[in-house]
Design a protein that fits this description.
5-stranded parallel beta sheet; 26 helices; 14 strands
């Protein structure tokens, strides 16, 4: 069995083409293929196939598509396709471990070529460089055109295709650099000229072409290339060539040869002092728990296999400790990244058109670039960022990303990255998703002990446990309670519990922000990221906030069908505003306690009646 994605999507079994002819089936199988070995939920499939506008019986249609795909993937001897397309909780998984897969082979060859190129450059071994070139050439030959060219893209496949094209570009540049190190300048010239015709604004290609021409004894042609490129940039983009190309031109005018500055084995000359790159906030001194999650994140973020830098996305409901976890991990592994650690706080940033450019410019300034050297376009900023971080051990932490921030599609290509967000960042190819939940009661007690002392908690352990359960074991709220107890060393835990929950209807989360619990603003941010329809649906859950509820009950509150209600609930769960429960009778949902309090206050604010719940008809 062979699966191919580096060109037209195709599936063959024993030489027989079984690629689905139906566009929807082909899109679904392509999605499962690029997520090889990972669970793809039914909701993700629906979103990919119908882009948020599913038909009434979308779930049943997906089940039908799975049946059709299993028939198509059955071997000629009637072995069931179940061995390849596996049903897992909440979705499906395509297991290609026993199949030929061109993308897997491409990644293997690229990783081997990259390692050989690095070793060959370090030891100046022509044999290693020759092997590197051979591996990279074989990897590039696997590409038969635009990836998944015959597939109708949804958001997830489109993001993965962009990632594939970037990997292809990186391998292509490594191949060109290997050929340069082998001094095959003349044979490179024609190849690079063809690439420039396809990518007329990639300055790195012009730099390679000018260097190859110069070292082939064709210095005047190299200077003509610079003048033609400068004229093209000025006429079409109003830009001048970058500093690296300008330095190369000056070196050629002076009659010398400039070092290939973008060689992946030669570090860029400009580098800020390392103390400027030690940007991580201090570690959380009383951090505890999350042991298994921490091991997984550390393992992923320090991995060095493959051509793509590792990305870990930590997501969870407001107040679950995403930032604390990211900062703790980053400080823990900082020794693995001697070239620096960069921390960018994205929380509560306005989604302006210039947002991504501003963040990239801030990163480049941190890396030592001067303002006058910064490109004026986002692609230019991205290119400089990748050049500065290539082959450097730098860790990037993006704290508080949101779905509208397309920057997350660019940054992981340059260096290992930890991203935190309330929602899972769908479509971020190659990323490891880590979901944070609330604490267990034991972890909650442990945190309280670290803040106020074990003796004080032991004196009222049952009361402390009751209080922690009453706040849904939310780490942010437990820390708030511990701080309040620390401020009042003579107050008992029971007194705090009574003051907090004497009359729950009187609690205003927005007022609690004045004394240290900033949960309202976090929930407000999650609410504002919802679509208008989702906001209305969330407010409609006020009638169900006291108990758990089923999909059917939610659909009735939303005044829509089960399929649409299921998609809305998935979005609310992703936003951390609703919690999904796996009960024996099937999946149910509930509103966390403080989310329910926020909902009451949000409803009351709509009618200027803070503190009093409104009837559903007020929505």
């Amino acid at each position: 069995m062979r699966f191919s994605v580096l060109g037209d999507f195709s599936v063959t079994i024993a030489g027989r083409d079984v690629t689905p002819r139906s566009a929807k089936l082909r899109s679904m199988l392509a999605l499962l293929t690029i997520r090889n070995g990972q669970t793809t939920t039914v909701d993700s499939i629906i979103m990919e196939l119908w882009n948020g506008r599913p038909p009434e019986r979308a779930i049943g249609t997906v089940h039908t598509y799975v049946y059709e795909l299993r028939k198509a993937l059955s071997a000629p001897d009637d072995e069931p396709g179940e061995s390849v397309l596996v049903t897992v909780p909440h979705g499906y998984c395509l297991d290609l471990s026993g199949a030929e897969f061109d993308l897997r082979r491409f990644e293997e060859l690229a990783a081997q070529g990259s390692s050989l190129l690095s070793e060959g450059a370090r030891t100046r071994s022509p044999d290693k460089l020759e092997l590197a070139s051979a591996h990279l050439t074989e990897a590039l030959r696997l590409w038969r055109g635009e990836p998944l060219a015959n597939v109708a893209f949804g958001e997830q496949v489109r993001s993965h295709v962009a990632w594939l094209e970037e990997q292809h570009k990186q391998v292509l540049y490594m191949h060109l650099h290997a050929e340069m190190k082998l001094e095959r300048y003349s044979s490179l010239i024609g190849e690079v000229k063809l690439l420039i015709e396809r990518h007329p604004f990639h300055e790195e290609l012009y730099e390679i072409l000018m260097t190859a021409l110069s070292r082939s004894g064709r210095r005047l042609e190299a200077l003509n290339v610079y003048h033609e490129m400068r004229e093209r940039l000025n006429n079409e983009l109003g830009l001048d060539p970058g500093p690296s190309l300008q330095r190369l031109q000056q070196a050629l005018i002076a009659g010398g040869h400039e070092i290939d500055r973008r060689d992946p084995q030669v570090r860029p000359e400009r580098i800020a002092p390392k103390d400027r790159l030690a940007q991580l906030p201090p570690d959380v001194p009383d951090f505890l728990g999350r042991c298994e999650i921490l091991r997984d994140i550390v393992s992923h973020i320090t991995a060095t296999n493959g051509t793509a830098a590792p990305i870990v996305c930590i997501h969870g409901a407001p107040g679950t400790g995403k930032s604390a976890t990211a900062i703790h991990v980053a400080n823990r592994v900082s020794g693995e990244f001697p070239d620096g650690q960069i921390y960018i706080d994205l929380k509560r940033k306005e989604p302006t058109a210039e947002f991504e450019k501003d963040v990239f410019a801030e990163i480049l300034r941190t890396l030592g670039a001067a303002d006058e050297e910064l490109p004026r376009t986002l692609p230019g900023l991205v290119g400089v960022f990748r050049a500065l971080t290539r082959q450097r051990r730098i860790l990037l932490v993006l704290d508080g990303a949101e779905p509208h921030m397309e920057i997350t599609g660019f940054l992981p290509l340059g260096c290992p990255t930890i991203v935190t967000s309330t929602r899972p960042l769908h479509g971020l190819a190659g990323a490891t998703m880590v979901q944070l939940d609330t604490f267990t009661p034991e972890e909650g007690i442990g945190l309280l002990e670290r803040i106020v002392g074990k003796d004080r908690v032991d004196a009222e352990r049952e009361t402390a446990l009751c209080l922690i359960n009453q706040v849904d074991t939310l780490p942010l709220t437990i820390r708030f309670l511990g701080e309040r107890l620390s401020f009042s060393p003579r107050s008992s835990i029971e007194q705090l519990r009574k003051s907090m929950f004497r009359c729950e209807a009187d609690i205003c989360l927005s007022q609690l922000e004045r004394i240290g619990l900033d949960l309202f603003s976090r929930l407000e941010s999650a609410y504002r990221q919802l679509s208008p329809k989702e906001q209305t649906a969330f407010l409609a859950l006020s009638c169900l906030r006291a108990n758990s509820f089923s999909l059917t009950e939610a659909a009735q509150a939303f005044s829509c069908g089960d399929t649409e209600a299921g998609i809305i609930l998935t979005s609310l769960v992703d936003a951390g505003l609703v919690k999904a429960l796996d009960d024996e009778g099937g999946q149910t949902y509930r509103l966390p306690r403080f989310t329910g309090l926020y909902l009451v206050e949000r409803l009351a604010r709509r009618s200027d009646q803070v503190g009093r719940c409104l009837p559903l008809t007020a929505i």
